């Protein structure tokens, strides 16, 4: 089949997210100017540059009390920093709990009983037990076409890696099995990897 998004797809559910898969999950922790901590997962997330290392995530919905966006973007507007926590399969349920439409005053770390740890280069909390966390300083927020679509770009200023995830000098994802986002309500998990050599390498 073929469809043009502006004309609809005619299917029971939008297939777009099921086509662009799997997607890494950026479990974004932020702290507002008032000191309130927030933790929320975003599946429009990825790394975008090596030098300096940079990442992005996109927020595509809004809360009534957050000036056209959600808590994460609103906090980053205020403070200019955020942390990206990697989600392992073992944390799937607590990650999912933090995805709810909670009130602005809710600390999702406390709600889901997730241990916090301080970041080193930014004033923000991180998920203490995460396989890895990227501490980030905001470079820009880009408003995309459509209501409440914002992409946040940040430069990575600090990297935490859990010691048990480093095997023979490499960050081994099979030690913790990253959770990935598919379409609809579906997720997947990475349990196997293989390597390919580029031509010319």
Automatic annotation (TrEMBL):
One of its GO terms (molecular function) is FMN binding. Residues 18-173 form the Flavin reductase like domain. This is Flavin reductase (DIM6/NTAB) family NADH-FMN oxidoreductase RutF. The lineage of its organism: Bacteria, Pseudomonadati, Pseudomonadota, Alphaproteobacteria, Rhodobacterales.
């Amino acid at each position: 089949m073929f469809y043009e998004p502006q004309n609809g797809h005619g299917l029971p559910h939008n297939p777009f997210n099921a086509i662009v898969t799997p997607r890494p999950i950026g479990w974004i922790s932020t702290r507002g100017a008032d000191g309130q901590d927030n933790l929320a997962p975003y599946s429009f997330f990825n790394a975008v540059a090596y030098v300096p290392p940079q990442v992005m995530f996109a927020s595509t919905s809004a809360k009534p009390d957050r000036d056209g966006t959600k808590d994460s973007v609103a906090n980053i507007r205020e403070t200019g920093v955020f942390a990206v926590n990697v989600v392992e399969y073992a944390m799937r349920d607590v990650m999912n709990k933090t995805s709810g439409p909670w009130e602005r005053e809710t600390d999702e770390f406390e709600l889901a009983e997730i241990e916090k740890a301080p970041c080193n280069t930014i004033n923000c909390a991180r998920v203490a037990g995460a396989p890895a966390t990227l501490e980030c300083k905001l470079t820009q927020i880009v408003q995309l076409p459509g209501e409440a679509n914002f992409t946040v770009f940040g430069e990575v200023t600090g990297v935490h890696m859990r010691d048990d995830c480093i095997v023979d000098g490499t960050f081994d994802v099979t030690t913790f099995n990253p959770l990935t986002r598919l379409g609809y309500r579906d997720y997947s998990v990475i349990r196997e990897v293989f390597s390919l050599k580029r031509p010319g390498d």
